[in-house]
Amino acid sequence: MSIEKFQNKFIEYAIENKLFKRGSKILVGFSGGADSTALMRVFLHFRKQYKLTIMAAHINYHLRGEDSEQDERFVKEFCFNNNVPVFVKQANLFGVSGMENKARDIRMKYFNDLKALNKLDAIALAHHRDDQAETVLSRFFRGAAFNGLAGIKSISGSIIHPFLLFSRAELEDYLQAKGCTWREDLSNAESDYTRNKIRNSMLPMIEREYNSNFKEKLNEYSIIFCEADKYFQSEAIKLYKRAALLESEVEIYLELDKFLPINPILQFYVLKIAWEKLSHSSKDFYYYHFKEVQNLLDLDGGKELSLPANIILQKDYYSIRLYNKLTFSDKVEYDSREISSLRTVFVFNDKRIQMQKVKTISENDLKKDNNCVVMDFDKVQFPLTLRYRQAGDRFIPFGMTGFKKLKDFFIDEKVEKFQRDKVVIFCDAEKIIWVAEHRIDQRVAVDSETKWHLVLTIDNLKENKLTIARKRTKKG
Fold it and tell me: Peptide bond preceding 397: is omega within 30 degrees of 0, i.e. cis?
């Protein structure tokens, strides 16, 4: 491939994938190897034409002794000769376990810090077609889904990969045609790391004995998987919006009736959206995690599952709840609150309570929603105490003649397991008088002898789709 053809393919790919625009400020990850040197060269060729600001970043991990020092000197000299600002970070990874991942984390943090500090538009990395094949194959071995098998994307957030259409051999040919030198990383020939084993042993064996175009096929698959991933992602976003009952930075509720009819592959994507919102990560949620969720959904009652990144998933009668256990707080202002006499309105944590004493009441008032009840004022013994459930709680549910344990009442009424501790219990001086939003006690019920009525209304200070959905489900 001629120099001109190579450069034309580069700029056509960049424009087609909207990797940068005229006037963009770009940070290039520059190791000094053939890949990143070719990337620097081609950016420098288009620097003036597209008014690009090019900067370079290099990390010396000191893993190869004098070779590492020579890499750094090569990068600095190259940048000096081509008027490119360069940033160099020193890092020491000797004796560090998981060295590949640690090096990547250090590298990307440094690049992102530089991008933010210098107000740059993009970080350009020199991954090429051979890297793409290795990535797809390694992720296949790890059991990745479509998103993972899509491999390296041309653009991911602020990171761009302009070389995915070129092989390593084409990059070296380009440098040789321009008379450019580069640094060879001899450790790439070793097979100590998984990626090197795939590069040096597995792929050559497959190409030699099974399919000489195997790398090309893996690149084709990555394109197909990428398009499939885009489609499923776009559909899942719409389905997520329909199923989401409540969404905050620390917890998300999905309505089961909206979630369960979804095709399983789209269920996976919907859950992944929720998980990413809470974990602030796009990694480490795999299909086998989704299979665990599916198994949990097949079970009756309230169940709980731990997912990566400290995300907890809870399944109940009407919803799936996900929350981040590191950031979510269930603390309340009141564990209990005593009301010594009739109060018009007061607050108990996230609830607003209204109290009225009325002489007469219409038939319609007796048929209000579960958040409003009417009882016999003279059967209530002040002070009232508002609290949450306690071991051994029991009452006589309206319409019954005998006591029932509160725990059994919740089970029979299908009150969600993980919501039971949030139900407000109204007690007078002697007994439970109302399990809020569920049932009053028969002993305070209105009868023909009632002279004065006590009307209690409880409302959420922040009424949300979750509350509305629960009411709708119970009515339906």
Answer: no
Say how many residues make up the chain.
Answer: 476
Chain segment 38-71, per-residue pLDDT in tens: 999 999 999 999 999 999 999 998 888 888 899 9
Question: Which domains does the chain show, CATH number per domain?
Answer: 3-126+161-210 (3.40.50.620), 232-324 (3.30.465.60), 336-475 (3.50.40.10)
| SS3 call for 277 | helix
Count of CB atoms situated within 10 Å of the CB of 32 = 25
Reference 351, options 467, 470, 441; nearest CA is 467
Taking only the tens place, the pLDDT of each residue in 63-75 is 888 888 999 999 9
Instruction: Report the chain's C-alpha Rg in angstroms.
Output: 32
**Helix, strand, or coil here: 233?**
helix
* Helix and strand totals (H; E) in the chain: 15, 22
State how beta strands 432-435 and 336-339 pair. Answer: unpaired
φ/ψ (deg, to 5) at 349: 55, -120
Residue-wise pLDDT tens digits, 297-326: 888 777 889 998 899 998 887 889 999 988
Burial 151-186 (b: 16+ CB within 10 A, else e): bbbbeeeebbbbbbbbbbebbbbbbeeeeeebbebe
466: which 2 tokens? Answer: 């979750």
pLDDT at 371 over 90: no
Q: In Å, how far are 356, 410, 428 from 431, measured between CA atoms?
A: 20, 18, 6
User: What is the phi/psi pair of residue 354, to 5°?
Assistant: -115, 140
Q: What is the DSSP letter of 397?
A: B
